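hi!! sorry for the late reply, been swamped w classes. u asked for the two structures so here they r. pasted raw, havent cleaned anything up. first the sequence of the first protein and right below it the tokens
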Amino acid sequence: MYNPKSHKAEEFISHEEILDTLKYAEENKHNVELIDKILEKARQKNGLTHREAAVLLDCDIKEKNEEIFKLAEQIKKDFYGNRIVLFAPLYLSNYCVNGCVYCPYHKQNSHIPRKKLTQEEIRQEVIALQDMGHKRLAIEAGEDPVNNPIEYILESIKTIYSVKHKNGSIRRVNVNIAATTVENYRKLHEAGIGTYILFQETYNKESYERLHPTGPKHNYAYHTEAMDRAMEAGIDDVSLGVLFGLELYRYEFAGLMMHAEHLEAAFGVGPHAISVPRIRKADDIDPSAFDNGIDDDIFAKIVACIRIAKPYTGMIISTRETEECRAKLLHLGVSQISGGSKTSVGGYFSPMPEDENSAQFDVSDRRPLDEVIRWLMELGYLPSFCTSCYRNGRTGERFMEVCKSQQIHNFCHPNAILTLKEYLEDYASPETKEIGLKLIDKETKIIENEKIKETVEKDLVKIEAGERDFRF
């Protein structure tokens, strides 16, 4: 039985319900009256059910698809404005005991260089990232209870937060590690992490078990129920994702929407963010071996439908995607992107030669962070390094309340301006700084609240004088 409030994976992600949903969407993809009703509901900006969203995804009526894209763009502007948050991944270790067939870290891969960063090497990596201008990291590690125990992850988080280099500091550490226990999630929460990230890879249980033939990740229920355990442990900011290309995209889309609905039904808080990575080439992994790949047009439709269905949930696109693809998706719903990323262990301070590469996947957008920042501004976006909500307790339900009321602008917009100013003063090239200062002047002038505007103007002067870390 499908039950979104259940804590059993096969009840809140019901295979039968997904199949019924896909059948319903196929039968109604040309039902203009129903599509119009769904779009009208979406315009209220309270979200859609997985079935309603699936109908929009299947719709192939040109005029209606134009409405879908236009609505996604408007919802993005209403909730997130023109802000784009920047982050970078930090790979701690590629030791892994799992046998995932799509990941080069799988245990059977005997020729990939295995590496685990020491705390001193982590410190060097963090300094390198701070020297780029990053304030927000997502740490990554393979699943290996011997090489990567929870104690190693906790010590690494402590090291990252402790590094203060020149004007640099990492203000938010998000964590992407394997499914674990409530006790370990509680330890992560106490360590002050930002968001807990875990990709489902695929919601199809049969495919999941085939793609994860060995190792603890083979346990579909334990993996799928991980977010419940994280929530139980007090982590109220969690991030979902699937790896598109492993299974039929319509199935994955429905499962992803159902997982988000489950968190809302069971805990009162949906996911803080949703990631939509596509499978990429890496070491011994050939993406052409998987026959469910999606092209850029379908990818854009997925992003637009997620934005409409989950208007208050952040969306993340990494450097897996090309510059051209990322530009296309930004206005459709994406609110966070990585920049200047390395997906190898130790890739920032002392990258390995190409023939000793330990990267998890090939990066498509290889531009340095400064170039990405300038590109965003030239496209009309406001780059942000803000971590204010997390450090001011605006997480989980409190964040969603502020976001759903569309009051998040009062925090995020001024914080974006102030953190961009920090970047421009400390790290930007002359060209980027020139463009950025003009953008800051423009964005400051449009702040409607006079008190907030006055405070921002004063803080901008203080940043020029050398002070740092102002936030609303």
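now the second protein. again sequence first, tokens right under
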Amino acid sequence: MTDSALAVTLLTFWRRAAQLAFGGFAGFIGDRLGRRTTLILSQVVIFAACLSLLLLFEGDRLSAWQITAAAFIIGAAWTVDAPARAALVPDLLGRRLTADAMLLESLTHSVLLGTGAFMAGWLLEYFDASAGFGSLTTLTGLNLLLLIWLGRVQVPQTTPVASEGVWRSIGGGVSYLRGNSRLMTVVVISALINTLVFPALSLMPVFARDVFERGAIGLGILSGSFSFGSFVGLFLTQRLRRHMSFHSIFAFGSLLQCVAWVLFALSPLFGLAMLLQFLAGVGQASFYTMRSVILLTSSSNEMRGRAMSTVALSQGVGLPGELVTGSLAETVGPRFAVSVQGTLAAATALAIFWKAKTRQSSSP
């Protein structure tokens, strides 16, 4: 609609703005309302936003600012939804099966994300945006119905903290994280990658159309390669669990996706770019899964929801990264923006992991 790389990245910018605005409150909201109630209410908001986009498009009244507003609303709902959903897993299965459950969740997520990415490009290429908005509305509606139906299942354990006020709850969560060096390392690395690396995903349409000249189908192929890499990466993560610690796998995934994105930005060939997107997806699988596993298994029952809310908050902290990435892509090109930021992220992450490892080795 705008032919602007900056306008494209601003969509993700406003979604991250919602994460930054609501991330600190997500754990408190889930504990106060109840995790299942929080899931249902957040999905109602997402369904309403998708339906509104569909109706506006069909009425030929959809504009760029409305899409941006929907991105903010969906981002806010997702920010509250994700910590509650992840924190519910140990309640249902116990800590012993949490890692396996998160791997299974990541597996289904990567399969559906890869399928959805390809279908999105296909629908846009051969139909129009109404097909995409219609699919989103249908799927979010089915998701909402499924959550309502699953809400009847009894949960054997809950850990509400309804007696605490919101600011006391947030302050307690911050203090808890500061006192746990392992959790703090995960949160800092997550914020770093969300600031310097993940904004590159916002530029995927720019790479597909302007850099590699492959259009919507090319966008679907690149996004699908990334998602397929995430799928394969989950099986690799499962095997690595037998020989490496959760934190080592997390470090491996973080560094791999940084390096893969740098090489992708510099790739002269579309086929090579597909391979590098696949490798970035492999790294993302280890990073994403182990981040959740570490936060869930290393935090107490009372702090689990607030620890998981730091995921959304760390993604919101990446807000300046969207502006910088979009501005650089607009002025000096997407290749330069992604390669420089990916290199900086890899170097900084390596220094943080090395310092953490040195600290652990010197501790009694």
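hope this helps!! also noticed smth abt the second:
Residues 5-153+163-362 form a domain with the Growth Hormone; Chain: A; fold (CATH 1.20.1250.20).
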